[in-house]
C-alpha cells in the first residue's frame, strides 16, 4: 500500500507531495528526499544512452527497515522519471502484500497520465506547485492508498 | 372525491390532505416543479408523497397557476406569504400544497388563514383545464373557460394533458420549450402553436407515466433570464435533435437536478454569444482554441489564476490543452457564473458536458465539418500543428489523442524510413507529395508499395516534365537547407553544386522525411536533422527546371494505378502543386531522353549529397564524443565533491 507520493521537479524541489498517515509526514518527506539521490544516480548511470532507450520506470530505489512507529514494516521507495526529468517517487509499505512490479508500474503510469493532464492546463506554469484540488484528485494517489479524503480537501502550498 | 383527511400527506407537518387533494396537488406540483421535479414529479402521487422534500416548484409556473385561480393579486400575495414560500424563497412541496389549500379556501370564500386549511375544502379551481386531476376533481363547468385567454396556459394545457401519459423524455424537450412556454409575458400564439404541436407529437411518441418532467425545464430558463422569445422554428428541430440526443438516463438526473442546474444551463442567447466569442478567437467553429489563446482570453475576465485553472480543468474534458466549441462554451459559462457569484461546482455539471452541449445545440455541420476540415485543412495548411489537430479531431473520440497522433507521426516516420533503403523512384514519389498534406498520409503508403516501376514507366511514357513553378513552392525547404548549410560549412559548397542536377536517386529518406517535416517538423526536427538536410537539398535540386524528369517518376509513383495507362494524367495529379499546370505531353520521345539525362544527373547529385551527409555525420559524432567526455569529467568532479557534502 502506497503511503506517500511525491512529484519532484527537475531541479529537485517538490511539486506535489502527499502522504497518508499524516502524523509521519516529515519522515516520508525525508525518505523521498533521500530517494532523490538514488534517482539521480540511476539517471546518471544511464546517461550515455539516448533518451529513447532510457526506461522511465526506475524500480525499487532502496528499502528501509524503519517505520517502527506504528508497526514494523518495511518501506520501499520506487522511482519514475519522465522525459522532462520530472521525478515521481512513491513510498510503499510492503507489509500487506508484496506489490508486484507491474502494479507499481501501473500506478506510476496513472500518475504520469494525471501529471500530463495537469500540464495541459494552460494556466499551470511548469515548475509551479501543483495546487488545485482538482489536480490533487487527478494526481490521485494510487488506488491502494487508503484515504482519498486526503486528496479532496487539501491544497498543497 | 374528498375523503375525510384521508391519507396524510407527508409533505406538511400539519397539513392533512384528502386522497383526491393529494393526487391533484401532487400533479400540480409536479407540473410546476422545476428541475427538481423529481420529488413530486416522479410518477404517481404516492411516489410524490414519498419524496416531497426533494422538489421545489419554480416561481414562474406557480405564479401562473395561482393567477389562473382567478384570485385577486393581494390574496395571492397573502397566500404566498402564509404558505411560507416567501420566507423560504421557493415553493417546496409543503409550501405548494399549503398554498393550494389556501387558494381553495379563498375560492370557497374563507379568509386566507392557516386555520382555514385545516378543514376540508374543495379543490382549488384554476381557470384552465390544466390537469386531468383538475378535470376529475375540479369544476367541470370551469374547464372550458378562458382556454384561449392565457396563451401560456394553452401550451400548458396541451402539455399538461399529456403530461400524465407522458414520459420523462419530454424533459429533454423542455430546454427548448421553456423559453417559449415559460415567460410570463404572453408570447404570441403562433409560437405556441407549433410548439404544442411539436410537443404533442413528441408526447405521443413516448409513453411514461411521468407527469412532471416536461415542466421541469420550464422554470429553468426563466431565472436565467433567457428571454429568447425563441425561435419558433427551432423547437421542432431541437426537439427532434433532443429526442435523438438525449437518452433516458438523463431524465432522472434532470428530474432531480434540473432546478439545481439552473445556473449551469446555457441559454440560446448565451450560446450565441459564446459562439461568437469563439469565432473571434478561432474562425473555424469546428476547430480548437489552443491553450495559450484561451488563457489570454480568459485572463481578461479578471478571475484569479487558480480559479481559471480550476475552470479549465472542469471544462477541458479530454485534457488535451485545447478547447473545442462545447468545451469553450462550458468554460465561458463557468466563468460567467463565477463572476456572478456562483460557487464553482465540484464537477462539471451534466448540462455543461461537451456531449450535452453538442447535442443540445446541434450544429449539424459539426460532425461533417470534422472530416471536411480534416481534408480541407490538410492541403491548405501544412502546419504540423494543424495536422496534429486534425488528427486530434478525427481521433478525438478515441482514448488518448496524443498517442494516436504520435502513432500517426510514428507511422509516417516509419513509412519514410522504410523507404530509405528502397529505390530512388520512391523518393521521387514522396517528393511531390510533400507539398500536399492531404496526400502525405496517402502518398507514403502508396509510394512505398509502388516504387519500382516508376522510372521505367516514366521513361517509356515520357511525361512532360513537371513545370517548375510548383517546385519552387518548396522554397521553405530550400531556405532551411541553406540555413543548415551555413551551420555545417562543409556541406554548403556541396549542396550548392548539387543544386544544379536534380538527384532523383536521392534515397527515399530525404524525401519522405521532408514530407514528414512539412507536416511535423516541430516534433521531429532534431531527429531528422541530418536526413532532412539531404531531403531539403534534394527537393531544392528538384525545383530546378530540368529536374522535371525526375519528378515524373515521382508522380508516377504517387499514382501507380493511373500510371499504367495514362501518361499524362498522373502528372497533373501527382505533381502536387505542379498538378494544376501539368497537361498531356505530346513530345514523348524527347522527354524520355531528357529523363535519362536527368536521372543520371540526379544520381550524381545524390551521391554528392550522400558525401555531404557523411561528413556531417562524422562531425556530429565528434561533437558528441566531446560532449560525452565533458560530461564524464563533470561527473567525476561531482563524485569527488559529493563525499565532502555528505559530511
UniProtKB/TrEMBL annotation, chain A:
Q: List, alphabetically, the Pfam families matched.
A: Sedlin_N
Transport among keywords? yes
Q: Which CDD domains match?
A: TRAPPC2L
Question: Is Transport one of the keywords?
Answer: yes
User: What's an example GO BP annotation here?
Assistant: endoplasmic reticulum to Golgi vesicle-mediated transport
Q: Which UniProt keywords apply?
A: ER-Golgi transport, Transport
Localisation: Cytoplasm, Perinuclear region
Q: Name one GO cellular component term.
A: perinuclear region of cytoplasm
Concerning its family, UniProt says: Belongs to the TRAPP small subunits family. Sedlin subfamily.
Q: Could you identify this protein by its name? A: Trafficking protein particle complex subunit 2-like protein
Please give the organism: Diceros bicornis minor
Upper lineage? Eukaryota, Metazoa, Chordata, Craniata, Vertebrata
Amino acid at each position: 500500500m502506497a503511503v506517500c507520493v511525491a512529484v519532484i521537479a527537475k531541479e529537485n524541489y517538490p511539486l506535489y507531495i502527499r502522504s497518508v498517515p499524516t502524523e509521519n509526514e516529515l519522515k516520508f518527506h525525508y525518505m523521498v528526499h533521500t530517494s532523490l539521490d538514488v534517482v539521480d544516480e540511476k539517471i546518471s548511470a544511464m546517461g550515455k544512452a539516448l533518451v529513447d532507450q532510457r526506461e522511465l520506470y526506475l524500480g525499487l530505489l532502496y528499502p528501509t527497515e524503519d517505520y517502527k512507529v506504528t508497526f514494523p514494516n518495511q518501506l520501499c521507495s520506487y522511482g519514475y522519471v519522465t522525459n522532462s526529468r520530472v521525478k515521481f517517487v512513491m513510498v510503499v509499505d510492503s507489509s500487506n502484500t508484496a506489490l508486484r512490479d507491474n502494479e507499481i508500474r501501473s500506478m506510476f503510469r496513472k500518475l504520469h497520465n494525471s501529471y500530463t493532464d495537469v500540464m495541459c492546463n494552460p494556466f499551470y506554469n511548469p515548475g509551479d506547485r501543483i495546487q488545485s484540488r482538482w489536480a490533487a484528485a487527478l494526481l490521485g494517489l494510487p488506488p491502494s492508498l487508503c484515504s482519498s479524503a486526503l486528496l479532496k480537501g487539501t491544497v498543497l502550498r | 372525491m374528498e375523503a375525510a383527511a384521508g391519507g396524510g400527506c407527508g409533505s406538511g407537518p400539519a397539513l392533512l390532505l384528502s386522497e383526491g387533494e393529494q393526487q391533484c396537488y401532487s400533479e400540480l406540483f409536479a407540473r410546476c416543479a422545476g428541475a427538481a421535479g423529481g420529488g413530486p414529479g416522479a410518477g404517481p402521487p404516492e411516489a410524490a408523497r414519498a419524496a416531497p422534500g426533494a422538489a421545489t416548484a419554480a416561481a414562474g409556473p406557480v405564479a401562473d397557476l395561482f393567477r389562473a385561480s382567478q384570485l385577486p393579486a393581494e390574496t395571492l400575495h397573502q397566500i404566498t406569504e402564509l404558505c411560507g414560500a416567501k420566507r423560504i424563497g421557493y415553493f417546496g412541496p409543503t409550501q405548494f400544497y399549503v398554498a393550494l389549500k389556501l387558494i381553495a379556501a379563498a375560492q370557497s370564500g374563507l379568509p386566507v388563514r392557516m386555520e382555514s386549511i385545516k378543514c376540508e375544502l374543495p379543490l382549488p379551481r384554476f381557470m384552465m383545464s390544466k390537469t386531468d386531476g383538475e378535470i376529475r376533481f375540479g369544476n367541470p363547468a370551469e374547464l372550458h373557460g378562458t382556454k384561449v385567454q392565457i396563451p401560456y396556459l394553452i401550451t400548458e394545457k396541451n402539455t399538461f394533458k399529456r403530461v400524465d401519459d407522458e414520459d420523462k423524455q419530454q424533459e429533454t424537450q423542455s430546454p427548448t420549450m421553456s423559453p417559449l412556454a415559460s415567460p410570463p409575458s404572453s408570447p404570441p400564439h403562433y409560437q405556441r402553436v407549433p410548439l404544442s404541436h411539436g410537443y404533442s407529437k413528441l408526447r405521443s411518441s413516448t409513453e411514461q407515466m411521468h407527469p412532471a418532467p416536461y415542466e421541469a425545464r420550464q422554470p429553468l430558463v426563466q431565472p436565467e433570464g433567457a428571454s429568447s422569445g425563441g425561435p419558433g422554428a427551432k423547437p421542432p428541430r431541437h426537439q427532434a435533435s433532443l429526442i435523438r440526443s438525449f437518452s433516458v438516463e438523463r431524465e432522472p438526473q434532470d428530474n432531480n437536478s434540473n432546478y439545481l442546474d439552473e445556473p449551469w444551463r446555457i441559454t440560446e442567447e448565451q450560446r450565441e454569444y459564446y459562439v461568437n466569442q469563439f469565432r473571434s478567437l478561432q474562425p473555424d467553429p469546428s476547430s480548437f482554441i489552443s491553450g495559450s489563446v484561451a488563457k489570454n482570453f480568459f485572463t481578461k475576465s479578471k478571475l484569479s489564476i487558480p480559479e481559471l485553472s480550476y475552470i479549465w480543468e472542469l471544462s477541458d474534458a479530454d485534457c488535451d490543452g485545447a478547447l473545442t466549441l462545447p468545451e469553450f462554451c462550458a468554460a465561458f459559462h463557468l466563468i460567467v457564473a463565477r463572476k456572478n457569484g456562483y460557487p464553482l461546482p465540484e464537477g462539471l455539471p451534466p448540462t455543461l458536458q461537451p456531449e450535452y452541449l453538442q447535442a443540445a445545440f446541434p450544429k449539424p455541420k459539426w460532425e461533417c465539418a470534422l472530416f471536411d476540415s480534416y481534408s480541407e485543412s490538410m492541403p491548405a495548411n501544412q502546419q504540423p500543428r494543424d495536422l496534429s489537430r486534425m488528427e486530434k479531431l478525427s481521433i478525438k473520440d478515441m482514448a488518448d489523442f496524443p498517442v494516436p497522433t504520435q502513432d500517426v507521426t510514428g507511422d509516417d516516420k516509419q513509412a519514410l524510413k522504410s523507404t530509405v533503403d528502397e529505390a530512388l523512384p520512391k523518393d521521387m514519389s514522396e517528393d511531390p507529395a510533400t507539398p500536399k498534406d492531404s496526400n502525405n498520409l496517402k502518398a507514403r503508403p502508396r509510394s512505398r508499395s509502388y516504387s519500382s516501376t516508376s522510372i521505367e514507366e516514366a521513361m517509356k511514357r515520357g511525361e512532360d516534365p513537371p513545370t517548375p513553378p510548383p517546385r519552387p513552392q518548396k522554397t521553405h525547404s530550400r531556405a532551411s537547407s541553406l540555413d543548415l548549410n551555413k551551420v555545417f560549412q562543409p556541406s554548403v559548397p556541396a549542396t550548392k553544386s548539387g543544386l544544379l542536377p536534380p538527384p532523383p536517386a536521392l534515397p527515399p529518406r530525404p524525401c519522405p522525411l521532408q514530407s514528414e517535416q512539412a507536416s511535423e517538423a516541430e516534433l521531429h526536427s532534431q531527429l531528422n536533422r541530418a536526413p532532412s538536410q539531404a531531403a531539403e537539398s534534394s527537393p531544392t535540386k528538384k525545383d530546378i527546371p530540368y529536374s522535371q524528369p525526375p519528378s515524373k517518376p515521382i508522380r508516377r509513383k504517387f499514382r501507380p494505378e493511373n500510371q499504367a495507362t495514362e501518361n499524362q494524367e498522373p502528372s497533373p495529379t501527382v505533381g502536387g502543386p505542379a498538378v494544376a499546370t501539368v497537361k498531356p505531353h505530346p513530345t514523348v520521345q524527347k522527354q524520355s531522353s531528357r529523363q535519362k539525362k536527368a536521372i543520371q544527373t540526379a544520381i550524381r547529385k545524390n551521391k554528392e549529397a550522400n558525401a555531404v551527409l557523411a561528413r556531417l555525420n562524422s562531425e556530429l559524432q565528434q561533437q558528441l564524443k566531446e560532449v560525452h567526455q565533458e560530461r564524464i569529467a563533470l561527473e567525476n568532479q561531482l563524485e569527488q565533491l559529493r563525499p565532502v557534502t555528505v559530511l
